[in-house]
Backbone:
């Protein structure tokens, strides 16, 4: 195949105007939307090749998730819903850093290195979030796919987890589910309705939810779920799109600012579920009778889910484990290992690392503290559960229903919410009962801008700095002075900043620790 058409379209419609090196990071390529057209086009080209390379459908999702509305981004989805294979992240980086004329040789290089048969058919699924720039950027992706002779299916505005789901279903021939948006809603809602067939209330559990749609696709997705879920839950949707995407609301705002989202009425003792701009992260929060704010993040969700599944799998000889990152609250790790006896592994930030580590368990629960995560079941686990369910083992029957509520292909805010609701309902817990399971150590996250964030390199799942020399020693000295102190720094994979995390026995101390460490970095 020659790539003259790819070069022509690039030069005429998607010329590259920057020379600064760009890297495919944790979340693919992400920046201000007006700088992304040529990148989108090239990711379309790459998706076309990757589809041929894997003889499968490849997904392209256009979103900047929880980031502000002027930003956008692009991520490729591999055949089984996974993040793009590392070798192809390198190809993505090479292709984006080529000149317009250089596209041809970059593509030829990829074809020869990956031994791609370019005569094969290529099909790419494309989805986008609600950002105003997403439609234009979607056209650029499609132009790329078409320029390498590929075909595409445009799913329009969908959540990130829906795109992962349809890609997976298509590629496994429909075994996981029907490869359509409706198929996704129906599978998950049907499973949830079934779990609720015995009634919607139980003990302290009340099926009332205030839902914060972050003014994005999560609001649309939830209203679609509600159409399918009848009366299994009593959800009221706020931040449906009348305000600015992710602005003062949504999962990232609630988690990082530790504040109640604007646009949601301050009803006391009712849980609020906040999702992010592409509905792959979820954070719970509530106000008590005194109006005090409590947040239940990915760690609270992970421990709730892992504890429940651990009970259901008892007797099935399956190894269940939880995967967290360094951002997991120390109290959550202590609770799940010491109280519940579930083994915990620590992975580097970024779901692909967590997902990978979760594969080492028969049942792997993985969650980032920011609310991104899911549960994955190995083939052995599925078979063991199905066999026991057929033999009328009660727990296994329940587990087999719970399985269908979970979107195993990627973190999915709404599927995760339905899973949390399932566990709370089974336990007869109110949101404060759930919160009381353990108390988070006070913590603080900060960002600092430095001249070159790449000078900071880390090891031990990002908990220890290797360079610059001496920084880790300084951090150790600072941390020593704080009761229950823990702190680490790492360069962000998605923003041009360095992140600082600190926890300590009081909020004041955690804030103080974060500031001192930030000063050491700066
Ligand atoms: P970076 O910018 O690398 O810290 C952030 C999140 C990740 C992950 C990615 C992708 C934190 C501390 N980091 O990564 O967990 O969600 O974005 O969106 O929340
Ligand atoms: Zn997201």
Residues:
């Amino acid at each position: 195949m020659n790539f003259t058409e790819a070069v022509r379209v690039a030069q005429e419609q998607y010329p590259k105007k920057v020379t600064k090196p760009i890297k495919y990071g944790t979340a693919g390529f992400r920046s201000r939307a007006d700088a992304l057209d040529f990148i989108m086009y090239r990711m379309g080209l790459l998706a076309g090749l990757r589809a041929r390379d894997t003889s499968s459908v490849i997904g392209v999702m256009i979103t900047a998730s929880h980031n502000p509305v002027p930003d956008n981004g692009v991520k490729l989805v591999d055949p089984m819903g996974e993040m793009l294979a590392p070798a192809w992240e390198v190809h993505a980086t090479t292709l984006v850093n080529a000149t317009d004329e250089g596209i041809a040789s970059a593509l030829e290089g990829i074809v020869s290195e990956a031994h791609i048969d370019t005569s094969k058919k290529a099909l790419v699924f494309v989805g986008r979030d609600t950002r105003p720039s997403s439609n234009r950027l979607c056209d650029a992706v499609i132009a790329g796919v078409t320029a390498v002779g590929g075909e595409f299916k445009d799913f329009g505005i969908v959540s990130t987890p829906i795109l992962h789901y349809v890609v997976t279903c298509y590629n496994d021939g429909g075994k996981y589910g029907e490869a359509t948006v409706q198929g996704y809603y129906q599978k998950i809602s049907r499973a949830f309705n079934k779990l609720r067939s015995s009634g919607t209330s139980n003990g302290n559990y009340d099926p009332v939810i205030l839902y914060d749609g972050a003014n994005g696709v999560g609001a649309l997705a939830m209203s679609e779920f509600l159409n399918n879920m009848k009366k299994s839950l009593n959800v009221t949707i706020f931040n449906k799109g009348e305000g600015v995407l992710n602005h003062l609301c949504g999962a990232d705002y609630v988690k990082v600012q530790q504040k109640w989202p604007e646009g949601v009425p301050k009803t006391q003792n009712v849980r609020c579920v906040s999702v992010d701009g592409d509905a792959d992260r979820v954070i719970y929060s509530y106000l008590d009778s005194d109006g005090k704010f409590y947040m239940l993040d990915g760690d609270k969700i992970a421990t709730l889910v892992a504890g429940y599944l651990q009970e259901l799998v008892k007797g099935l000889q399956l190894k269940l484990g939880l995967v967290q990152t360094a951002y997991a609250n120390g109290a959550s790790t202590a609770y799940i290992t010491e109280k519940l006896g579930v083994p915990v592994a620590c992975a580097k930030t970024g779901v692909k690392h967590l997902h990978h580590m979760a594969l080492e368990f028969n049942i792997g629960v993985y969650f980032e503290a920011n609310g991104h995560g899911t549960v994955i079941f190995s083939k052995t686990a599925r078979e063991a559960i199905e066999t026991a369910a057929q033999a009328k083992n009660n727990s296994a029957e329940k587990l087999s229903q719970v399985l269908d509520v979970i979107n195993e292909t990627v973190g999915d805010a709404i599927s995760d919410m339905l899973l949390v609701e399932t566990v709370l309902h089974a336990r007869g817990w109110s949101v404060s009962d759930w919160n009381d399971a353990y108390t988070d150590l006070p913590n603080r996250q900060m960002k600092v801008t430095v001249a070159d964030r790449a000078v900071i390199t880390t090891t031990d799942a990002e908990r220890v700095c290797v360079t610059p020399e001496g920084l880790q020693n300084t951090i150790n000295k600072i941390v020593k002075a704080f009761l229950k102190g823990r702190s680490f720094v790492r360069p962000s994979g998605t923003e041009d900043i360095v992140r600082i995390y600190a926890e300590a026995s009081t909020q004041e101390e955690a804030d103080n620790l974060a500031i001192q460490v930030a000063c050491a970095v700066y």
